[in-house]
Structure prediction request, 270 residues.
Amino acid sequence: MSYGLLKGKKGIIFGALDEKSIAWITALRCYEEGAQIILTNAPVAMRMGEINKLAEKIGAIIIPCDVSNNEDVHNLIAQSKEYFGGNFDFILHSVGMSLNVRKGKHYTEIDYGFNLRTLDISSMSLHRVLAEAMKQDALNEWGSVVALTYIAAQRVFPDYNEMADAKALLESVARSFGYHYGIKKHVRINTVSQSPTRTTAGSGVKGFDGFIDYAEKMSPLGNASAADCANYIVTLFSDLTRKVTMQNLFHDGGFSYTGVTHAVIEQMEK
Prediction:
């Protein structure tokens, strides 16, 4: 069902890889709510995914962008303004990559060169995008930026590896930039800490199925799906949440504030 929450709004969505990805489903929901969208991803991810299918479905254009490349980010923002005929209203940052995880390196033995690359792509890319948007005055007054994160930024999940550090830095960037962009142009910046979700990227984390099963048992409302997350992001892009900024918003069925559940106790007693 559409409520017209984003009628007349325009935005950029990073990271739509395939039909499982939160960014993909969010792009569909934003379109259904009346938004005009530009899709972007790294060239290598675009070759792996099916982004052209999504672009055709929602009438979007695709602008390739390596978020670790200053020139690519500059061109993305400039070309987006040109395509939209002016400024736009929202950005979804759904970007994350860990070479140490890909190479199977344990957290206590990470390669620091790989680690710098992880932090650059997964965390500082948000800073780079926001800085360029501010420099080009690309976001409209009361614009909204959302970045996806995970509770491993606050709690230890051993197999989440260096991505836990990356998400903690991502959340810090959102808070700090949220202050400056809020003062400058009332742009709000938040992170959404989503339940573990069966996406192509998420499934690459060791023990991911265990993450999902445990979270399901620990969440009074159950895990939030990618579709649930997309709906939540739509509200954050809408005018209904104009005074929400610099927050890490847990969207996890209550997992983040639950100490233990009967389901977990019963599982342990078996």
